[in-house]
Design goal:
about 400 residues; 6-stranded parallel beta sheet; 18 helices
């Protein structure tokens, strides 16, 4: 049985961690799988433990480099993390890359002991992966490169570009993002492929039936949005859309499930809630390890993002048979069949679509029926994964 090592950046909430767990759960009968977390921080670690995933021991040096300051509780680790970061800044000023040396040293401990080493996300884990030479390497890229590259400094952009050139196969999670990445790296386009995130449909449906305490009010139209509080999710636009729905006399409640405050995204949402004073219909209920019962209870799921490589929550909502209303980002129509499993519309027109569904019950029921008839076929994705690791 072939051995695969998956490199995770950490165990925080997000699509990468859950998508990887889904993939491992469906591949583990075909391969011997281990996980190397660059950081052991994050609440989802317990889900990996519960699933019986083989998690390799924490590497102190690696975790000092990768743990966020806010997540470190050990005084010893805080001290070493501070020293390492200062050393890294000094070495960069002298034209050296101390992090590269550390990554190379740690990679040697595992290189060649696995048939395949696969990093599960772009960024630091891809740079780390590029230090493996003896094992075959696979890099998952879960973003839209034309957007992602704007977030990087010229120096970091050069480092990550070099890493892409060194790894074996690059897996993008949609055809749209695959073509986008290949446009910037035409010389390695033959090594860039598209594989949608595989879903454990049975598991998702089973979890969606679990009982929860905070049940939705069935007397109003229930809307849910799920994701980490990050700028790309554009949750701060929800109070404004909700205000427009209120002006039209719609009776609804909009639940936002997620946590974090990346680049002040949560603060911005709170400002908009205070501006429109509609906290009674837009409710932030925090993160949930199992968001599926909430998606199942909702009448619709709304995605307000301005970009998504492979919107995991959209796929999960379709599996649970909850219609999806999505803003028109580049890959949206690859995952939502407009007018069949939901609607894709310009973000400025979402209120029109939602109000139509609330006020025209027959239109909503027709959409709901089409979603209920939908069944995801994961065999194609599984075959691609088996071919990848063959």
């Amino acid at each position: 049985m072939k051995k695969i090592l998956f490199i995770l950046p950490e165990f925080g909430f997000g699509g990468t961690v859950f998508s990887t767990l889904n993939m491992i759960s469906l591949l583990r009968d075909k391969y011997e799988i281990s996980v190397l977390p660059m950081s052991h921080q994050g609440p989802v670690k317990e889900k990996y433990i519960e699933a019986g995933v083989n998690i390799l021991p924490e590497d102190f040096l690696l975790s000092c480099y990768c743990d966020a300051y806010g997540g470190i509780t050990s005084i010893r680790k805080k001290f070493f993390a501070t020293v390492l970061r200062l050393f890294e800044k000094l070495s960069l000023m002298m034209g050296l890359n101390s992090r590269s040396v550390i990554y190379t040293t740690i990679a040697r401990k595992y290189d060649g002991k696995f048939d395949y080493v696969a990093c599960c996300q772009e960024g630091a884990s891809t740079i780390f992966l590029s230090k493996f030479c003896k094992s075959k390497t696979v890099a998952w890229f879960r973003s839209e490169y034309s957007v992602y590259r704007k977030q990087l400094s010229p120096q970091r952009l050069a480092i990550e570009s070099e890493a892409f050139n060194k790894v074996g196969t690059i897996v993008c999670v949609s055809q749209t993002t695959r073509d986008d990445l290949a446009n910037y790296f035409p010389h390695i386009a033959d090594r860039i492929i598209a594989i949608h995130n595989i879903q454990n449909c049975e598991n998702i449906i089973e979890k969606s039936k679990e009982k929860v305490e905070d049940v939705f009010n069935k007397n109003v139209f229930n809307i849910v949005s799920v994701g980490r509080f990050a700028p790309q999710k554009q949750f701060h636009l929800i109070p404004g859309i909700a205000h427009e729905l209120q002006k039209r006399g719609c009776k609804f409640c909009w639940y936002i499930i997620g946590d974090g405050n990346q680049e002040g995204a949560n603060d911005k949402l709170k400002e908009e809630l205070n501006k429109y004073k509609n906290q009674d219909v837009v409710k932030c209920i925090g993160s949930r390890l199992n968001p599926y019962p909430y998606i199942a209870m909702a009448d619709i799921l709304v995605s307000t993002s301005y970009y998504e490589a492979c919107p995991r929550v959209v796929a999960e909502s379709k599996i649970i048979h909850t219609p999806v209303i999505s803003s028109d980002y580049s890959s949206a129509r690859e995952f939502v069949v407009d007018g069949v499993t939901g609607y894709v519309e310009d973000i400025n027109n979402l209120a029109d679509i939602i109000s139509d569904l609330i006020q025209d019950r027959s239109k909503f029921e027709a959409l709901k029926k089409q979603c209920t008839d939908y069944n995801m076929d994961c065999d194609v994705i599984m075959n691609k994964l088996v071919e990848l690791f063959s």
